[in-house]
Amino acid sequence: MRQLTPEALNPAILNVQYAVRGELAIRAEELRVQLKGENHGLPFDRIISSNIGNPQQKGLDQPPITFTRQVAALMEWPALADIAPDAFPKDVVARAKELHEAIGSIGAYSHSQGVPFIRENVAKFIEERDGFPSDPNHIFLTGGASAGVSLLISMLISVPHKSGVLIPIPQYPLYTATLARFNGVPLPFHLDEAADWAISIHDIEAAIEKAHREGITAKALVIINPGNPTGALLDEDTQIELVKLCEKHSLVLLADEVYQVNLHKPTTHPFTSFKKIVSQTQSPVLLVSLHSISKGVSGECGRRGGYFECTNFPADILDLIYKMVSVSLCPPLSGQIGVDTMIRPPNPGEESYDLWKKETDEIHATLAHRTKTMSGRLNALPGVSCVDSPGALYLYPQIRLPDQAIETAREAGKEPDAFYALQLLHETGICVVPGSGFGQKEGQWHYRLTCLCPGVEDYVRKLEEFHEKFLQRYSGAN
Amino acid sequence: MRQLTPEALNPAILNVQYAVRGELAIRAEELRVQLKGENHGLPFDRIISSNIGNPQQKGLDQPPITFTRQVAALMEWPALADIAPDAFPKDVVARAKELHEAIGSIGAYSHSQGVPFIRENVAKFIEERDGFPSDPNHIFLTGGASAGVSLLISMLISVPHKSGVLIPIPQYPLYTATLARFNGVPLPFHLDEAADWAISIHDIEAAIEKAHREGITAKALVIINPGNPTGALLDEDTQIELVKLCEKHSLVLLADEVYQVNLHKPTTHPFTSFKKIVSQTQSPVLLVSLHSISKGVSGECGRRGGYFECTNFPADILDLIYKMVSVSLCPPLSGQIGVDTMIRPPNPGEESYDLWKKETDEIHATLAHRTKTMSGRLNALPGVSCVDSPGALYLYPQIRLPDQAIETAREAGKEPDAFYALQLLHETGICVVPGSGFGQKEGQWHYRLTCLCPGVEDYVRKLEEFHEKFLQRYSGAN
């Protein structure tokens, strides 16, 4: 029989790129296997996966929130509440009982849009956060934010290679990967690194016009706030301008707000949801706001849970979204109950509250401390500049590389920042993602690293030592 | 701003149909809400969702396997093993410890292809089942079988509206829905109801030739074994012929084997995997075999877990599949550990074994009893014929409807079987799926119902009484 070749597959598949789990991450997995052997010959003992925001991974071990896991354990085996009545706080038992009555077995498919009771709770959470009404019927629980992004972009690409989506550069590569898969056109606009990664309305307008000249219709605008990989936070004036821009150009606003509680400087850099801005300004703009349990202080990536809320969507479009999610049956119940515990933490006075407060305070403080330490120390290195991110889980330092390094990289067929990151991996075990995976201006080089790490001092020292050695190696002086 | 209309969306989305959660299911949800009100005015007190194979749903309450849930509870909160040491059998504690060491926190992303340790266990399970080697690197854990089907079909459709996939009629509508979404062409071949839904190689050849004449290339053949909705099981001779057919026409064989342990007559109608047939015959055919934790005796639909194994796939194609799953990050860990407990049940002599045996024996016996009772009684009704399914979770009775019913249905703009099913729902609360959702020969009418129900006697009586009333209502005699 004829063998199957990549050329016989959907060509869109071949164009998909996803650097977060790309070449560097695959090489890191190989090294991880090599480390298990005796006499592995590597100059480090562990891989530190700073390529992905995965707080609970081995070696990082950000602890899960106890309340979340206690409720989940009782949902798995409800008889436990009777078998081991003293093992659980009373509010946990009550919460699990309430959820069990609403859901039944977590081994059953739920409503395709998500358990109605949990959607009602999400709507209340949004109302309390923003001060404006939210409708549970306009909320879709998902298997993480990525599933929602993929669904929505696949629906919006109406004409292959002619429908575009505006995306910030640098961006989270899920967006370009999803556009490639569904033959949509990425319409990039650059964030201003010198202004702490600010958005320029003018640059977005220019991207829309450029697309128009090329016969491409902009269908949606992606905004990631707090930013990934930049960690930047939008101010409300900019948000209002962005909403007006979407109105003017009939763009669906895709607001990726999964880092909304990862705020390291909440006084000077608070988070305001786009839902609140749209409600306040009574804008008719079509808004999708995405949230997730994978980030924040929850860090429950493995459960695959999240939601998106549609604002100002016509009923027939909501019906179509429902039809599409129904083909996938339902989001994982483990993720759905994870959403519920995230948006309904214990209240003051309840038995679990103190522990919950202590755990979440510690996670916030640790992240803020690490981010500040890492950005400060990286900034002090020769040829490195790093915006001190007020939010999210990442830093995106710019590295100015010696000409000789750039030439050597080019000769090896690598992007210079990928070349740098591969050497970093091989010499320290630290896996980061080259900026070429997120996008950057021509001739600039970056990498993204998470602010999740074991022992920040030791970790930063490794980054520093490597960087200095790298500069020496490729300086004109040798 | 311009309003978003369905016409401005990807036109493929509009063509997607998924009857299992379609009109009937949506109406059933509305009635379920109505039932909560006082004086609901409906002639029944509960909705029985026989439209979907969802064993643990409220009202059906097939119990989860205790072993599965105990392991899962300990994975959620590992400290429980110390806090309540007497609450769990020793083998459960040992199993959870082993999994925890291999995985770490279930709140972390795993390898995108699934936890390596669990894939190794799946490979051992397949080797023991079939007697042939299996490679963990060729196994992809998924969020249920549907996720795998959707991914694979989306990759195989290389030319929109010109790449086809052969699907049995009747089929599980996931296949047509996925083809519609990715602009693939369904190439139907009919199963022979008079021969207990047998497959005819000749009919598949005819479908390939017809496609060829229309400029459509058949890329893959879908086989559902045990069948859905038919419950039929293939014999090995037919399986060998199907493999040869795939070789001859260079078709990828997509073997949906999610009902492989739902066997009601295992002596006369055993299950043989396509992996075994391909291995035995040393066929070079590209095979994807799909399995799930949602069916079988596990019934863990809500966890979203499953796997597919690729046989004879070239390395570059496996790399592309890996790239695509990496964009979705990873399957839910709750589903992954569900796969592990399904394929590694307790062994004889271990503390959990007796209970596991009792629970699974009961589920098997109940399903076999219900299927036999339901098919026997349905067969005895005037105008109904129903193959006595040896496998899976469904029956697919054919109903011969009075001309007057057909005319009335047509006047109401309904398919006659949807018209029948809607009346069944409104009069009894039983929700089934009309045959038009699965496919049937012109002029024939069917419906699919699950063999999951509370109290089979009472349930079948409702079906009988409704059917006789329906015939009276539309017989020429009134």
Write structural notes for this entry.
Chains A, B: Residues 89-453 form the Aminotransferase class I/classII large domain. Chains A, B: InterPro entries: ALAT1/2-like, Aminotransferase_I/II_large, PyrdxlP-dep_Trfase, PyrdxlP-dep_Trfase_major, PyrdxlP-dep_Trfase_small. Chains A, B: Homodimer. Chains A, B: Its cofactor is pyridoxal 5'-phosphate. Chains A, B: Keywords: Aminotransferase, Pyridoxal phosphate, Transferase. Two copies of one chain form a homodimer. The radius of gyration of chain A is 23 Å and the shape is globular. Chain A is built from 17 helices and 14 strands. By secondary structure, chain A is an alpha/beta fold. Helix content of chain A is 44%, strand content 12%. In chain A, helix 2 packs parallel to helix 16 (416-428). Chain A has a seven-stranded mixed β-sheet, sandwiched between helices. Chain A has two domains: 6-62 and 358-474, Alpha-Beta Complex (Aspartate Aminotransferase, domain 1); 100-343, Type I PLP-dependent aspartate aminotransferase-like (Major domain) (Aspartate Aminotransferase, domain 2).
